[in-house]
């Protein structure tokens, strides 16, 4: 909650209404940047160019907001969880064991309360992140399907199933499918193709799992990708069960901890350079001009993106449609991305994410302060007093 002031009118209801609304507005306005970032992280441009696959970027504003419902709902639940859990945990940590000074707390207790609230809010965020990424992939895959239909250069199925004659397909079996044709990372891959990605070998005979229920569901959703919030929930649950909504939990925790640590460390170190003679230890005792504050925010944002972007890329791949099947865990994901796409692949999507981090804090703070005033004013009004 990006507000520095406290007053007697502040209460949990005011914070919930103002904080959740501000988070929803910020998430909505900056969502196109999130869409572009996720798509850049999952696309392999050199791989697409190799097979003359048309670009799969959105062609309308509506497509740029695909998955926005998941992010907005996730942001609202995340902020609600943060405020409620922090309010409860900070009050709990302030209880004096001897029954005196029950409202007194200490810095270590505040830190522990913050850690507790961060734990619960991250748990709330993970399922919505999985839904969001699948919705983005579904829209991206739909664009690939539509544009490849109009392309005369593509003569095969982008899910890995050959469209050539049986004799050609038979002779091509000696080479893995993903080496001789484009296999979209946004499609659900069959077990045969997954084996080829993971082990670089072919399972014989090809399409051996054709009759299994999951394989049939993969084929169905490859032809009819879900483009709605509820449809995507059904899709994930049908193919992966409850576990499908928990993918990437560990790497999400790691990323959130790293973001907080880098931001606070950079901000604190930089402001002390600006005001080295300030002897006060309080967080808000430093007085800065508007330009100094903007500079602190800019430097902190650059540091956050530089340090945590690889974690964000790994998280996106782990939570993708085939993430757990291909990569299994975060370390394997980092290793395979580094080996197959090079070190720069771990920094894909840096620019749109940097812009989002830079502007979202200002949007949230502005909307929060505005709504806080409205809610506090409305809270002091009495009905039917005339």
TrEMBL record:
Give compartment(s): Mitochondrion membrane
Keywords of the record: Membrane, Mitochondrion, Repeat, Transmembrane, Transmembrane helix, Transport
User: Is the Repeat keyword given for this protein?
Assistant: yes
Q: What does this protein do?
A: Mitochondrial transporter that mediates uptake of thiamine pyrophosphate (ThPP) into mitochondria.
The species this protein was found in = Candida verbasci
- Classify the protein's membrane topology as the record does: Multi-pass membrane protein
The name this protein carries in UniProt is Mitochondrial thiamine pyrophosphate carrier 1
Family, according to the entry, reads as follows: Belongs to the mitochondrial carrier (TC 2.A.29) family.
Q: Quote the cellular component terms of the Gene Ontology held in the record.
A: mitochondrial membrane
Name the Pfam families for this protein: Mito_carr
Name the domain of life this protein comes from. Eukaryota
* Organismal lineage: Eukaryota, Fungi, Dikarya, Ascomycota, Saccharomycotina
Q: Which segments carry the Solcar repeats?
A: 10-92, 287-374
